[in-house]
Design brief:
Blueprint (H helix, E strand, L loop, with lengths): L1 H21 L13 E3 L4 E19 L10 E18 L2 E11 L26 E22 L2 E20 L4 E22 L4 E17 L15 E17 L8 E3 L1
Antiparallel strand pairs: 1-10, 2-3, 2-9, 3-4, 4-5, 5-6, 6-7, 7-8, 8-9
Length: about 260
């Protein structure tokens, strides 16, 4: 009897081994990649920016446009307050943004310009006359069109309406006295591009370049009666700025626009 039981056990063992050898190999399953946060750019946002601006003020004196010019360039710190709204469709982001920027925070003029291209008022020769000009109180409002190639990155272009205060001054370097001044607000336009990075679902860090063009307006010198009689000191002025700045904004939550996970 014991011999029969041993024989049956051996037969079962051999049969089980053979069946196991015929079973297919267990497929290899790769672990899923970790979840990656995908930023949604929809929502209202506010913030600030700071950077550098190159200003250029140019103009001709109305009575002697071929002889007398009022040209001045300068560099300035620029600090801005920002507010806007944008909405995301897939990888496309459209928005509108407005900001206010101050440039001449210490109320100083850029470096005095003198020479053949800044011969302000030759009628007062041989006095050492120089031109000065500055731009301040810059307002802009316009559109933003962006593309998000990766979850946390947004590349965008921007452009729209601009308005700024343009001041001019005529300076006697011999006596150290100002002998002419004018100031008007100029309309214009701006265009630029930038990149934003979502630090979190709310905080956004960005870098941006803008070019601003201010239209020509006639300046009547305050020292020569002001508006609106043309004198030898009346000048047609325009301006432009090139701005590079860093931005930090806070985006408020938007219904259905929470950060989601992507695999």
């Amino acid at each position: 009897m014991k011999k029969i039981v041993a024989a049956i056990s051996a037969l079962v063992a051999v049969t089980g081994s053979a069946l196991a050898a015929d079973l297919p190999a267990r497929p290899y399953t790769k672990a899923p990649p970790p979840a990656v946060a995908v930023a949604n750019w929809s929502g209202f946002y506010v913030g600030g920016a700071a950077g550098w601006a190159r200003t250029e003020v140019t103009g001709d004196y109305v009575t002697t446009p071929n002889l007398n010019h009022h040209n001045a360039t300068g560099d300035s710190l620029i600090v801005s307050g920002i507010a806007g709204f944008q909405y995301q469709w897939n990888q496309l982001v459209l928005g509108i943004e407005g900001d206010y920027s101050g440039l001449t925070l210490d109320n100083k003029w850029p470096a005095v310009n003198a020479g053949a291209n800044a011969s302000c008022v030759q009628q007062l020769a041989p006095l050492a006359i120089s031109c000065r000009g500055r731009i301040d109180e810059l307002w802009t409002v316009g559109a933003r069109i962006g593309f998000t190639p990766a979850s946390q990155w947004l590349l965008y272009g921007t452009g729209g309406y601009a308005s700024a205060k343009l001041d001019t001054s005529v300076f006697n370097r011999g006596t150290g006295l100002e002998i002419g001044r004018s100031g008007l607000r100029h309309d214009g336009w701006y265009a630029g591009a930038g990149v934003d990075y979502a630090l979190t679902s709310n905080w956004i860090l960005g870098f941006e370049y803008r070019h601003v063009e201010l239209d020509t307006r006639r300046h009547f010198d305050d020292y020569f009666g002001g508006c609106c009689i043309v004198t030898p000191e009346t000048r047609d002025m325009k301006g432009k700025l090139d701005i590079v700045r860093a931005r930090l904004t806070y985006k408020f939550g938007w219904p259905g626009a929470a950060v989601v996970a992507k695999y």
